[in-house]
Design goal:
The structure holds 2 protein chains of 2 kinds. Chain A is an alpha+beta fold. Chain A has 4 helices and 7 strands; from the N terminus they run E-H-E-E-E-E-E-H-E-H-H. Chain A has helices at residues 24-32, 125-129, 144-166, 168-184; strands at residues 8-14, 40-41, 48-53, 58-63, 77-80, 83-86, 135-141. In chain B, strand 17 (307-310) and strand 18 (318-321) form a beta hairpin. Chain B is globular. Classes of the chains: A alpha+beta, B alpha+beta.
């Protein structure tokens, strides 16, 4: 079996204790993603935001993850080191429940792309501009095999459920028919 | 398309409630850049010299700097300008924080406020939506409290709020405008805001600021970022820690306070305690600092950490900047723990952290000398700290003696009489100065103190060393990588400057050299204040990230203006001269240009006259310190010359001084 190069997963690690709340990450992110590149600045278009509440000493840099159509029903509070955070403070989703990670002009969701560039940047620019080291960049191995097993497991579970409902014979017949149809095409 | 600027100002008339969005002229950016420069142009055009500070006709301007809102690192200053109730001259005070960039993102370069509201209001700016809202429920509220309440009622946690406390509402002549971890504190602009019935301005913006030549601009930013890292790793040798790095003095980061506690004076700017700092104090004060600080804080897009969140058990959180931790502590001959406690109250009240402790210490001295009595101050506590709280409350509420003290030491001494002016000894042009009392006259500092329009030495001094280096090796090490100098001759002057002998103060640097050094330092400050750049990365520290060589490139690539070093020098001198003209038109003259009498023990009257003559001539001013018609013409300020001639301030075709007018100034 040929040795495949392991896929790298890009991660921005966030240390909230080191954040000084300057929002340089937002500035450079919005500039980098402007069209043409660096032609404008607007933190509202940034794919990383510092969620802050100075009086409660809350400074949480969050970089944008997936878009979600519906808000979740979690609205809990976390208390960490005697400080209270909204659950949403750690969420990376562009979500209807809040006005983070939406382009202020188009309303379209924003998502971090790790500053995809040609030639590639050494690290995402928010990390480069964070001299406080609240943001650090890491590439971690993505464990490909595990993922495959998971997929196989899921299929087995799915097939098992079908067999339970329709019987082994019926399921095999349908599969055989699908196979024929595919061969005809 | 406009670059770096939005091209629009907000014009607010609080008397009529009228709000307008007014397009600005690109030529003004070319001549005055922005921030302080264009603020001064508006004050010259709209506020004639007879307008009193507390008049409907006085204008209060919140101006963002030209490059605020761009990725230029550390460019976040709001320049607040008006006529000062304390000096009756142009007052300008800057604050960092987040207000100016947010204003830009909302689509405005400045907010220009005229008129007065009958009831207390606040201004809410949300992109194109601008409202004047009722603030009666915020009357008497603290500045931080006000910020929190406004953000809550607007449901806008991302808004930034500039607000006044009770001191501003009661027109205390040294009331500040507070904004998160920053404030525009000096010269009483908070009192002007209060007089206009304006409790706060909240702003939220989600628009973009454009860059003229993006790739070039970001490369310049990257160079600055790299240099900041280099300076962090390579502090300057041979100077005290407080002067070795970048940023505002790193008061929140550094625990070593030997330099301030032993060089600055205690009490009413009187006593120097040369043996104050020792291990015991250091240990105790370090513990105090660590006990109350929860986090070091930065302003918008700046890696420096000049502020901090302060949580003293039992009192509400506030954010401290820079040096106020020591001003109350030292004025009260007290302890750092007291400093952190009283600054919380002072911040909520919204008062200047330099002037306020000096006014209080002045009152205590007057009381101890019998100039003020128990009749003036019934119930006055006996302990120093108790007295500070007592007087602070009286001043801010303008109660009893507080009503007199609320006008600052100069005006209070006039009102008290009985020789009280002996105790108001630390002023220039009616404004309280740093508590410094030194030995030998320093020609550079003499010029900066006397002639600076800012009246605040930390915002005039900067890039040139404060004192000569001890050895030739130290000098050579210092000048070796000093690329910031506008001209190589400055290096030679540092090499030649000795601690003793012929080439030492007061005679060296010579008056001509002193004028040129002061000009360089002032140029940098005037550029910063027009671009919105924090002095902490530029005009204030030694070997800064921004200087005369990279600034023209930043302005060209950022704002698309055609700028080079000569044009930038000219623009900075134009702004400096315009502000001088505003003050000259308001009655300031050569006789006002003097340091506190006791600032230096050793004075040299003839040399001092020569210094002023030389500096004025270098600046293109006449012997009275008034810009000449010829020089104003060179700067494109003919309209200023015409006005000064029409008013009889410039005579004989504008190139010779007017005779001293007895009715003007004091």
């Amino acid at each position: 079996m040929a040795v495949e190069e392991k896929k790298k997963k890009k991660v921005i690690k966030v240390d909230v204790d080191k954040c000084n709340g300057c929002r340089a990450c937002e500035t450079i992110c919005s500039a980098f993603h402007a069209e043409p590149k660096y032609s404008s600045t607007n933190p509202e278009k940034s794919k990383i935001r510092v969620l802050f509440d100075p009086i409660r000493d809350v400074y949480v840099p969050v970089y944008a993850g997936e878009y979600t159509e519906a808000e979740c029903n979690g609205r809990g509070e976390y208390t960490i080191d005697e400080k209270t955070y909204d659950e949403c403070a750690f969420c990376r989703a562009s979500c209807p429940a809040r006005d983070y990670f939406k382009d202020p002009d188009s309303g379209l969701p924003l998502k971090c792309d790790m500053c995809l560039d040609d030639p590639p940047q050494d690290e995402p620019l928010c990390v480069k501009w964070c001299l406080a080291d609240a943001l650090t960049y890491e590439e971690v191995d993505e464990d490909g095999d595990e993922e495959k097993e998971e997929t196989a497991d899921e299929m087995e579970t799915g097939l098992g459920a079908l067999i339970k409902k329709h019987g082994f014979k019926r399921v095999m017949e349908i599969l055989a028919k699908m196979n024929e149809e595919k061969a005809d095409k | 398309m406009r670059y770096a600027e939005t091209g629009y100002n907000l014009e607010i008339d609080l008397s009529t409630g009228n709000i307008e969005r007014a397009a600005t002229d690109l030529r003004d950016a070319e001549l005055y850049m922005g921030g302080l420069g264009t603020n001064a142009k508006i004050l010259w055009d709209r506020v004639p010299p007879e307008v009193e500070p507390f008049s409907e006709k006085n204008v209060l301007i919140f101006g963002s700097g030209l490059l605020c809102g761009t990725p230029a690192i550390g460019c976040n200053r709001t320049i607040v300008s008006s006529i000062s109730p304390q000096t009756l001259l142009m007052g300008y005070s800057m604050m960092g924080g987040f207000f100016a960039p947010e204003l830009k993102y909302a689509g405005y370069d400045k907010i220009i406020i005229r008129g007065k509201s009958k009831k207390l209001v606040y201004l809410w700016i949300h992109n194109d939506k601008v409202e004047i809202r009722d603030a009666s429920h915020l009357e008497g509220k603290g500045s931080v409290e006000t910020e929190v309440l406004i953000k809550q009622e607007l449901e806008q946690p991302k808004a930034h709020v500039a607000s006044i406390g009770l001191a501003g509402e009661n027109r205390v002549h040294y009331a500040s405008i507070e904004q998160g971890r920053s404030s525009a504190s000096r010269l009483g602009l908070g009192a002007v805001m209060g007089d206009k019935g304006l409790k706060a301005i909240a702003v939220r913006g989600t628009k973009s600021i454009n860059i003229a030549r993006p790739a070039e601009f970001i490369e310049l930013c990257d160079e600055v970022l790299e240099y900041i890292k280099f300076r962090e790793e390579n502090p300057i040798q041979g100077v005290p820690p407080i002067l070795a790095g970048l940023g505002s003095p790193q008061e929140m980061k550094l625990h070593d306070e030997k330099w301030h506690t032993e060089n600055f004076t205690w009490g009413n700017a009187r006593e120097r305690r040369k043996e104050f700092w020792n291990q015991e104090v250091e240990k105790k004060w370090s513990a105090t600092m660590d006990g109350v600080q929860t986090r070091l804080l930065s302003c918008y897009n700046c890696p420096m950490k000049c502020g901090a969140s302060i949580n003293v058990p039992g009192i509400s959180t506030y954010m401290m900047k820079c040096y106020s931790k020591l001003t109350y502590t030292m004025a009260a001959f007290s302890d750092l723990d007291f400093g952190f406690k009283i600054v919380q109250r002072a911040t909520e009240y919204g008062v200047d952290g330099f002037t306020t402790p000096q006014v209080i210490a002045f009152a205590i001295e007057c009381y101890e000398a019998g100039v003020l009595t128990d009749e003036d101050m019934p119930g006055f506590p006996v302990d120093s700290e108790g007295r500070f709280y007592w007087l602070l409350d009286k001043i801010v509420n303008r109660e009893g003696i507080g009503d007199i003290l609320a006008n600052g030491t100069h005006w209070a001494a006039e009102a008290i009489g009985k020789g009280a002016h002996e105790y108001a000894h630390n002023n220039i042009k009616k404004h309280e100065q740093l508590p410094l009392k030194l030995g030998m006259l320093n020609p550079l500092y003499f010029l900066m103190y006397c002639t600076g329009e800012k009246l605040n030495i930390t915002q005039i001094e900067g890039n040139f060393p404060q004192a000569p280096f001890a050895t030739q090796e130290d000098k050579e090490a210092f000048v070796k990588d000093w690329h910031q100098v506008p001209d190589e001759k400055f290096k030679q002057w540092v090499l030649d400057w000795d601690m003793r002998g012929e080439r030492s103060i007061p005679n060296y640097p010579t008056p001509q050299m002193s004028s040129e050094i002061v000009d360089w330092q002032e140029r940098m400050h005037y550029i910063d204040d027009s671009l919105g750049m924090c002095a902490g990365l530029s005009s204030f520290p030694l070997k800064p990230a921004y200087h005369m060589h990279n600034y023209p490139k930043f302005i060209s690539a950022g704002a698309g203006l055609d700028m080079d070093e000569d044009k930038l020098t000219q623009a900075a001198r134009r702004n400096r001269t315009l502000i001088r003209a505003i003050n000259i038109r308001r009655g300031m003259s050569r006789k006002d240009e003097k340091p506190p009498e006791d600032h230096w023990r050793k004075r040299f009257p003839e040399l001092e006259e020569e210094l002023l003559d030389t500096y004025y001539a270098f600046r293109g001013w006449n012997k009275e310190g008034i810009p000449t018609k010829g020089y104003l013409g060179q700067l494109g300020l003919d309209y200023v010359a015409d006005d000064l001639i029409a008013r009889g301030i410039l005579k004989d075709n504008g190139n010779k001084p007017a005779k001293e007018d007895k009715n003007k100034g004091s």
